[in-house]
Amino acid sequence: MRAYDLILKKRNGESLSAEEIKFLIRGFLKGEIPDYQMAAFLMAVYFRGMDVDETVALTEALVDSGKRVDLSNIPGVKVDKHSTGGVGDKATIVLVPLAASAGVTVAKMSGRSLGHTGGTADKLESIPGFKIEMSLEELVEIVSKVGAAMIGQSKELVPGDKKLYALRDVTAVVDSIPLIASSVMSKKIAAGCDAVVLDVKVGSGAFMKNIEEAKKLASLMVDIGSRFGIPTTAVLTRMDQPLGYAVGNSLELIEAVNTLKGEGPEDLEYLCIELGSHMLKLCGDRRDPSAIKEDLEKNYLKSGRALKKFREIIAAQGGDPSFLDNLDKLPKAEHIRYVYTDEEGYIIEIDAEKIGRAAAILGAGREVKEQRIDLSAGLIIKKKLGETVKKGDILTEMHSNNVGTFEKAEELIRNAFKIGSNKPKVPPLVIQTIG
Ligand code: URA
Q1: What tens digit of pLDDT does each residue of 118-154 get?
Q2: What does the pLDDT look like over 68-93, one tens digit per residue?
Q3: Which of 53, 138, 256, 289 has its CA at a distance of 20 to 30 angstroms from the CA of residue 338?
Q4: Nearest CA residue ID for atom 6, ligand 1
Q5: Strands 79-83, 195-202: parallel, antiparallel or unpaired by DSSP?
Q6: Quick one: what percent of the chain has pLDDT higher than 70?
Q7: Buried b (16+ CB within 10 A) or exposed e, 139-170
Q8: Residue range 371-407, pLDDT digits in tens
Q9: Ligand 1: does its nearest atom lie under 6 Å from the Cβ of 204?
Q10: Mean pLDDT of 245-253
């Protein structure tokens, strides 16, 4: 078998066998297939696509590139959750303790921020003392004891995805549906879960900008899950504006904690209850979805049980849960500036990607992987879609330790908000559920 022939085959729009795909991935990971051939192959995939069998073979080759977590000694159904990435998406921090308090076992691994999207691993690092880097053995131990853990992406799992993603990132092939689907699902499968709930984001702040593309991605991931015997539910949700109000690590953590106290933004709470109900369903809960949601909201979120579970998770991972009672203990930026509007009307558009980029400029994100982020930096939007504004109202509160960042961030924020004279119809957050 030669890499050249397989690149040619894909370039001509033919399907590759599982053996051929595994040959390419294994050769690339061993360094026998150079980056330039792999890059050419990936670009051919970008234009020609991959069918389900090919995507499953690619997923399998990626899973086989590293270790797999063994959660089989922990009783119950282990359900994972994954978001395809958005702006202000702190749902994992609420959802994991919420689902765990209701009896779902969750071993969650999360990535770091890159570009305009945030990463849960960074947000969790705002917690004083909280350890997100740990061995797979420690992860299993904490999940057995507490029922849930939230850690960073282990280097031992799916190293092939890391190498492939780095190449995709610099050759403009990140947004290919089969490549995203295999990348996401390989990490879920290697993480040892029995079932997965996927939050597939659609809109200005997401990878998938239109619903049709997002549906294709969601269906493909559901198909991959079923081929691996992992029941998968994908929920398509809108990312036309940031989720909640806060964007930036410790600011988002504060919003997540407030949500766990029953005082969070409506959209964030709604999403967590929705995703939580699917996690419970995958565990075999046969009640009507509306009954599950009501139970989650009343008996687990508003009652404080989810917050109590978060306390346990924090303590088990070496953190100091006392910040939950005094949020002033979290990192705070030295400077706060406001973006005011000089228009009047309704908020008709908020470009979430621009908001995410503004937060990154203030110090909350990274342009390149190695960059250090400022956990206290970020922004809080003060107006959401459909709300009225008048001259002099605050659109956004910017937080930074570097005053030099305010001007550029403000320009992006101003461009992100569009104000019109007619009240827009704000569509529902959840578009569709697949699987
Ligand atoms: N998230 C992933 O984990 N992989 C991708 O390829 C894109 C988003």
Answers
A1: 789 999 999 999 999 999 999 999 999 999 999 998 8
A2: 999 999 999 999 999 998 999 999 99
A3: 256
A4: 180
A5: parallel
A6: 99
A7: bbebbeebbbbbbbbbeebbebbbbbbebbee
A8: 788 999 999 999 999 999 999 999 999 999 999 999 9
A9: no
A10: 97
CA of 403 to the centre of ligand 1 (A): 33
Does the Cβ of 177 fall within 6 Å of ligand 1? no
Residue ranges and CATH numbers for the domains of the chain are 3-49 (1.20.970.10), 79-325 (3.40.1030.10), 331-420 (3.90.1170.30)
pTM above 0.90, yes or no: yes
Q: Give the pLDDT score at 112.
A: 81
Instruction: Determine the angle formed by the axes of helices 52-63 and 18-30, rounding to 10 degrees.
Output: 30
What residues are labeled active site?
A: 82, 161, 168, 183, 187
The answer to whether residue 367 scores a pLDDT higher than 80 is: no
pLDDT (mean) for 344-359: 96
At 83, which amino acid appears?
S
Is 42 a pocket residue for ligand 1 (Cβ < 6 Å)? no
Exposure string for 391-427, b = 16+ CB within 10 A, e = fewer: eebebbbbbbeeeebbeebbebbbebbebeeeeeebe
- Distance, CA 184 to ligand 1 centroid (Å)? 5
Note the pLDDT of residue 154: 85
In this structure, what DSSP letter does residue 322 have?
A: G
State the closest ligand 1 atom to the C-alpha of 165, by its place in the atom list counted from 1: 6
Number of neighbouring beta carbons within 10 Å of residue 102: 23
DSSP string, 225-289: HHHTT--EEEEEEE-SS-SSSEESHHHHHHHHHHHHTT-S-HHHHHHHHHHHHHHHHHTT--S-H
The residue count for the chain: 435
Per-residue pLDDT tens over the stretch 175-201: 899 999 999 999 999 999 999 999 999
**The pLDDT of residue 343 is above 80:** yes
Query: In sequence order, what are the beta bridge partners of 106?
Result: 148
| Cα 339 from Cα 332, distance rounded (Å) | 19
How much is the average pLDDT of 214-239?
Answer: 97
Best residue among 112, 114, 184 to mutate for probing ligand 1's pocket (most ligand atoms within 8 Å of CB) is 184
> Residue type for 433, please?
T
Residue 180, ligand 1, Cβ within 6 A = yes
Instruction: Centre a 10 Å sphere on the Cβ of residue 342 and count the other Cβ atoms it contains.
Output: 11
